[in-house]
Amino acid sequence: MDPLFANLNTAQCEAVRHVEGPMLVLAGPGSGKTRVVTHRIAHLLREGVSPREILALTFTNKASEEMKLRVDAMSPGSRVWVSTFHRFGARLLREYAGFVGLTPNFTIYDTDDSRQTLKRVIEAGKIRTAHYSPDRIASAISAAKNQLITAERYESRTGSPLSQIVAEVYPAYQARLLASSAVDFDDLLLHVANMLYQNNDVRAELDERYRFILVDEYQDTNRAQYVMLRAMSVDHPNLAATGDPDQSIYGWRGADIKNILQFESDFPQVKVVRLEQNYRSSKAVLRVADQLIRLNMRRKAKSLYTDNAEGDPVKLVQYGNQDDEARGVADQIAAGIAAGRRPRDFAVFYRVNALSRVLERGLREHGIPYQMIRGQEFYQRKEIKDVLAYCQLINNPRDDQAALRTINTPVRGIGRKTIDRLGEFAYVNGISLLEACREAVQVEGLNARAIKSVTQYAALIDRLSLLAGAALEEILGTILTETKYREGLQDSESEEDLNRLANIEELLTDARQFDEAHPGGGHLEEYLENAWLVNETDSWEAESDKVTMMTLHAAKGLEFPVVFVVAVEQGLLPHERSINDDEQLEEERRLAFVGITRAKEQLQLSYAVHRDFRGQRRRTVPSPFLLEMPREEMELVSIGTPGSWDVPTDWEDVHDLHDDSHHFEVDSDAADDSFEFGANADRNDEAGSSSPQPASVKAIPAAQITTAARLA
Ligand code: ATP
Ligand code: MG
């Protein structure tokens, strides 16, 4: 049998065979959507489509790498472009930088750099921000960008003080980014979408270039991504979207579930394929998942069955406190391993990263190897950012943020006042900060010593810039010695500095590996781009034999034989801030659904009666989602608690319980450190009042869901 179709069912084959025209593969978890995407690429190639005409997009580096591997296995050497939306955006922008006022060597600012830029703009413009934090303002700007509202078109809504402030800050922030030839994460999509929208020639060119576009996890596209995809699918409407509206979990980052729900009206001639067989989970797991997700109103009902075994009943465990929970989970993993499972068969999911610490301890006590997925941490470290800022400046001398970061790091006696004067001089003359440093003699109010230090700094950068085309390891090594950065750390006795030194060594190793993969030098920008666009899940090693610990958000698309979801508690899952908002509550239910449907054979959901969180011991309220599951067929266990089973049986009980307990106030940073990019619409919104809402959701007929204006 043809290997391309050997492991596909009839519906999957139908989707894989599809060549011309739009297609929507709408199907539940574990039904082979991702498999269809990779097989279809192989099929297109076999049909004679050129690899250059194919573009496959998804959301994480990990997912795109995985797809690339699969495609490569079926069509060796095909070099199809599989990418994340953000990488794709960056690539297009480098090609068409001039269209949006950037230079091709633009810098991509991470959340921290963007925030610093925003703060500088507010300070420089003496903009009064009332009590709104920079984070809050940044969220509002991010939300606007994801809605494709540019700085020029942003209008303050009357009566909203925040929007009035944003109306002032946003244009200034955007101007500052452009002056530095820099973009934030949202811009990678916004600029591209706008460019496509405004330049029909470019649009037509790219539509022609990428004749076949495939998107996995389409349910998580936001407005900007939607516009990009639509614009490139006018003359060649061969857009194939794969997704599951029930797994849309990035609303807070601007994902718009309407994009998938309305795909069919966007493309009237669309071919719709439904995959109904789940190959991943046991019957027991699937029934629990299905009963939960049915309670969402904003959805299209789907049927999903499996020929897999019934499997063990799903476990719902009540622990006395979080230590019991951590120990309980670790004990079971240890027992599972003793019985012949591998560590990598297990995964533990939680809503917020802050919950992982105690779990880690549990596994460590048992000596169980684990990998904790915590994202971008490495490249966020101060010393790494310091060193990379030099690289940034070499690559893009207009990058003021990088200049600010490096000008007095390591300390070279250039004070705040001097920097302010340089900044002002640069602003007035429309030049970069680095340029201003070169002309320090002309800057008013600088004494001879300051002029000397500043000029030396500029000369240092100019010297380093000569290295731009060298191998990465050489560039970094030279930066470290020329700036005396390494010396400074070596001379220090502090533990912290020793750690920093170790991290720097790791950076050098990283650079060496990069050089090996990119021989010949001249790849500085590519290296930086990899560092800028890291994802939370990048560090996850599917092959390594370790227990996986990650947030529910990060778990999307993955699968494990045994899954534990911990802290299924009111205020955590659903998250505090969603409790009074029906739409957000539905998203939390989808998040729980995503977690549950990662399990192949065994699933345990648990909560602790008492939890120490942010320094306080509190009595918890079990998640309302637990009430919505078919508990009569689940295995209920109570461990470490005197007394009996405590799960309330109806809403009256939840209210009673709630009266004598407190909700967690989950700090919003911890809550959302699962996001892959800085885009973070609304993540800082306050949760509002804390009274729980029954999980039943008002019925809203699908037709009543507002139809967004679509791109013609
Ligand atoms: P999710 O919604 O969680 O992303 P998905 O729909 O993308 O899931 P896949 O990850 O593609 O599903 O497939 C789920 C599992 O089922 C994988 O292990 C895959 O290899 C397996 N699978 C898919 N199709 C088949 C098939 N026809 N026969 C056997 N196994 C299959
Ligand atoms: Mg998938």
TrEMBL record:
Pfam families in UniProt: UvrD-helicase, UvrD_C
Gene Ontology molecular function: 3'-5' DNA helicase activity; ATP binding; ATP hydrolysis activity; DNA binding
Any one GO BP annotation for this protein: recombinational repair
CDD domains xref list: DEXQc_UvrD, SF1_C_UvrD
InterPro entries the UniProt entry points to: DExx_box_DNA_helicase_dom_sf (IPR013986), DNA_helicase_UvrD-like_C (IPR014017), DNA_helicase_UvrD/REP (IPR000212), P-loop_NTPase (IPR027417), UvrD-like_ATP-bd (IPR014016)
UniProt-listed PROSITE patterns: UVRD_HELICASE_ATP_BIND, UVRD_HELICASE_CTER
EC number, UniProt record: 5.6.2.4
Entry keywords, A to Z: ATP-binding, DNA-binding, Helicase, Hydrolase, Isomerase, Nucleotide-binding
GO cellular component assignments: cytosol; DNA helicase complex
Reaction(s) this enzyme catalyzes, per UniProt: ATP + H2O = ADP + phosphate + H(+); Couples ATP hydrolysis with the unwinding of duplex DNA by translocating in the 3'-5' direction
Region (Disordered): 675-698
Record domain UvrD-like helicase ATP-binding: where: 6-282
Domain of life: Bacteria
PANTHER family: ATP-DEPENDENT DNA HELICASE SRS2, UVRD / RECB / PCRA DNA HELICASE FAMILY MEMBER
Family: Belongs to the helicase family. UvrD subfamily.
UniProt name for this protein: DNA 3'-5' helicase
Species whose genome carries this gene: Lacipirellula limnantheis
